[in-house]
Amino acid sequence: MTALGEELLSTFDSLSEPERLEIVLEILKRVIHLDFPPLSDEDLVWNAEELFLELDKQESGYK
Asked: Is the pLDDT confidence value at 18 over 90?
């Protein structure tokens, strides 16, 4: 990721929740019309693994 992308995410993280939601909605409106190629099985497995690892990490914090 570029330095500009990192800065954008850092700025996003510093916003209040209502501001973040407003930004997310605007980004979703803009990307909905992009033509994304279909995800490969490998991509889907990798994403699922990342999600499950994050959920496991969150759940271990609740114990």
From this structure: yes
Dihedral sign for Cα 21, 25, 30, 31, please. Answer: positive
Q: Position of tokens 């973040």? A: 20
- State whether the Cα torsion 55-27-5-7 is positive or negative: negative
In whole angstroms, give the CA distance from residue 21 to residue 25: 6
Could you give the 3-state DSSP secondary structure of residue 47?
helix
Asked if 41 and 48 touch (Cβ cutoff 8 Å), the reply is: no
The per-residue pLDDT for 63 is: 60
Write the DSSP symbol of residue 63: -
